[in-house]
UniProtKB/TrEMBL annotation:
Catalysed reaction equations from the record: a phosphate monoester + H2O = an alcohol + phosphate
Domain Calcineurin-like phosphoesterase: 47-256
Pfam families, per database record: Metallophos (PF00149)
Note on how the cofactor is bound: Binds 2 iron ions per subunit.
Name of the featured protein: Purple acid phosphatase
Chief location of this protein within or outside the cell: secreted
Family in the record: Belongs to the metallophosphoesterase superfamily. Purple acid phosphatase family.
Top-level enzyme category: hydrolase
Record-listed Fe cation 2 binding positions: 86, 124, 218, 253
Natural source organism: Salix dunnii
Signal peptide stretch: 1-31
Presence of keyword Iron: yes
Required cofactor(s): Fe cation
Alphabetic keyword roster: Glycoprotein, Hydrolase, Iron, Metal-binding, Secreted, Signal, Zinc
Length: 335
């Protein structure tokens, strides 16, 4: 898997580079965010699974969740998998050769239906280890499904998915690390990093012509789980999503499954952070406006898209459907 990525803001021409695995194309445009092309099915549909907070070498029902993901993935004929971060516990990877990568990923998600591209972002626990290791191409040589970057875009024809590195937004990780050490290499000044990321995200969202716009980050904008709302994202990210007609914001961080409808826009906040260890009974009672579903056990989420309809489903560790929600794009109505 080799190539060169050129970024030149004065150039209108895009250079397309092919990544060998899964037939993906990496596109570098005048914007800073790297873009990957993910073809939809020939019939014009798109389906994928969303999983977060999972990497525990199979413990805390991680293996059981993986089995059900494989079954649902086969039934849906999924195109790819999205990981919402906290990919390896408790403190990320120690380096590119850390056996935890194989023990928590390759040896766990073994179903044929899951041998598709995995698009991943970093979570706060990933930053507590060697964050650069997860971004390395070396891991793709070990398991070609793996693709993890700080922030990037996947163009899946029906939808554009904007992956956002949310951990540097959270001030407490810098001011009150609670004894943890974070790998901030590649971040530099958090203020500058966030400002540049916001600028690039605004531009990419405003230029998007996709039928569905999806943003993925590790931290929640809205949640009634253990961590609750992420105030930095409420103030900095939420207004951008509203202004650019984003349909879904998907995250992990809280170890639960959750669906909240925005009270200020059509945005749906979808938490899938139950890939292994869950937090039973850890629920905030306040600020429940728009809450449609909450489950404090293990599981995952599926997404099915056509040009006019989206269906979201949440599954528990036994593969039971806990919550299903559909919306039609033309009418902005839901059932």
């Amino acid at each position: 898997m080799a190539g060169f990525i050129f970024k030149n803001k004065s150039m209108a021409l895009c250079l397309v580079l092919v990544i060998c695995s899964f037939g993906l194309c990496l596109v570098s445009t005048h914007a800073e965010l790297q873009r990957f092309e993910q073809p939809a099915k020939t019939e014009g549909t798109l389906s994928f699974l969303v999983l977060g907070d999972w990497g525990r070498k199979g413990a805390f029902n991680q293996s059981e969740v993986a089995v059900q993901m494989g079954r649902v993935g086969e039934k849906m004929d999924i195109d790819f998998v999205v990981s919402t971060g906290d990919n390896f516990y408790d403190n990320g990877l120690t380096g590119k050769q850390d056996k935890a990568f194989v023990e928590s990923f390759t040896q766990i998600y073994t179903a044929n239906s899951l041998q598709k591209q995995w698009y991943s972002v970093l979570g706060n626990h990933d930053y507590r280890g060697n964050a650069e290791a997860q971004l390395s191409r070396q891991l793709r040589k070990i398991d070609s499904r793996w693709l993890c970057l700080r922030s990037f875009i996947v163009n899946a024809e029906l939808a554009e998915i904007f992956f956002v590195d949310t951990t540097p937004f959270v001030k407490s990780y810098f001011t009150n690390a609670e004894g943890h050490t974070y790998d901030w290499r590649g971040i530099g000044s958090p203020r500058t990093y966030i400002a540049n990321l916001i600028k690039d995200l605004k531009l990419a969202l405003s230029e998007s012509k996709a039928k569905w716009k999806i943003v993925v980050g590790h931290h929640a904008i809205r949640s009634i789980g253990h961590h609750g709302d992420t105030e930095e994202l409420v103030s900095k990210l939420h207004p951008i999503l509203k202004a650019n007609n984003v349909d879904f914001y998907m995250n992990g961080h809280d170890h639960c499954l959750e669906h909240i409808s925005d009270t200020e826009s059509p945005i749906q906040f979808l938490t899938s952070g139950a890939g292994s260890k869950a937090w039973r009974g850890d629920i905030k009672e306040q600020h429940r406006d728009g809450l449609k579903f909450f489950y404090d056990g293990q599981g995952f989420m599926s997404v099915q898209l056509t040009r006019n309809e989206a269906e979201i489903a949440f599954y528990d560790v036994s593969g039971n459907v806990l919550h299903r929600w559909t919306t039609t794009k033309l009418l902005h109505s839901s059932t």
